[in-house]
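Record copied across here:
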Amino acid sequence: AGAARVGLKAVFDHPEWTYQSDHYVFFSEKIPFLYFGVEDHPDYHRPTDTPEKTNQDQMERVSRLMLVVVQNLADAPRRPAWREGGVEAADKPRE
C-alpha cells in the first residue's frame, strides 16, 4: 500500500538478496529489517557506476516510501517482531 502511495510497485525478484547485502548481520541476529533498493543498471557496482546513471526519479520515490514506512513504524504501538520464515518467503520471486 505504501509503495503505491508514492508511485512505486513493490517487487521481490532478487533471489537470495538477504544474504548478499549489508543487512545480513541483522538477519543473522534475528533483528527485523527492511531492504529498500532501486533498479540495477549495467554499471551497478562497477568503477563506471556514477550518479548520472541512476534513476533519480525512482530514488526520490523510494526515499518518500522510506519516510512513510519510518513514520508508520514510529507511530506503531509496538516494535516489529522477528517472523520465522519471513525472509525465505520474501526471497521467493513473485509478481
